[in-house]
Specification:
It is a single chain. The chain has 2 domains: 59 residues, Arc Repressor Mutant, subunit A (Orthogonal Bundle); 135 residues, Tetracycline Repressor, domain 2. The chain is 74% helix and 0% strand. The chain is built from 10 helices and no strands.
């Protein structure tokens, strides 16, 4: 009798990998629909159809979920802004476009990365290094543009900071729905052109 119960429990238990996937999807859905205010262990567990204790077991609580989303976001963003076409200037413009596409297509991740400071959440050193590598990808692109005569009067890291700040500011206004451009795509292209020509 005990053996039968044990076998039934083992066979019906949700695999750990599936729990992680379901929690991730639930967390992002909550961020997209309700924003940071609705981001709690209880809400995530209910949405993922798992016990709250499963989130503590697999993620060590809500901060572990945030850490996982932070890392996923910055790794995906680095991929979105990295181009190697042989034309550094073209790559830099596409990095800007990739940044915007990532932000608009991954609002939940972008919220964790940039748009909200979650109480008691502090990324680990490993997570901060992943974020730094994402920024470094943009710095390297600026360094390549310097070989063409762009960004000649500034440090590459400073030039990258200006590009990042401009792109973030634009997409943040879009995400908050307070961007009043008649054509947001065209206006963003003008922003990128202004950055490019301003550093010529």
């Amino acid at each position: 009798m005990f053996y039968t119960v044990l076998m039934t429990t083992t066979l019906t238990r949700t695999p750990s990998k599936l729990i992680v996937i379901e929690v991730r999807q639930a967390a992002l859905a909550i961020l997209d629909e309700k924003g940071p205010d609705g981001f709690t262990v209880r809400a995530i567990a209910k949405r993922a159809n798992v016990a709250p204790m499963a989130i503590y077991n697999h993620f060590d609580g809500v901060n572990g979920v945030l850490e996982a989303l932070w890392i996923e976001g910055f790794e995906a963003l680095r991929e979105a802004i990295t181009f190697h076409s042989g034309d550094p200037l073209w790559d830099l413009m596409n990095a800007g476009r990739g940044y915007r596409s990532f932000a608009l297509g991954n609002r939940g991740l972008y919220t964790v990365m940039f748009m909200h400071r979650f109480r008691n959440f502090c990324p680990t050193v490993e997570a901060e290094h992943i974020a730094a590598r994402t920024y470094q990808a943009l710095v390297i692109n600026v360094e390549r543009c310097q070989q063409l005569g762009y960004f000649s009067n500034t440090r590459a890291s400073d030039g990258a900071q200006v590009v990042w700040a401009a792109c973030h500011g634009y997409v943040a206004l879009e995400l908050l729905d307070i961007n009043f451009a008649a054509n947001r795509d065209d206006t963003f292209e003008r922003l990128l052109a202004a950055l490019r020509d301003g550093f010529r």
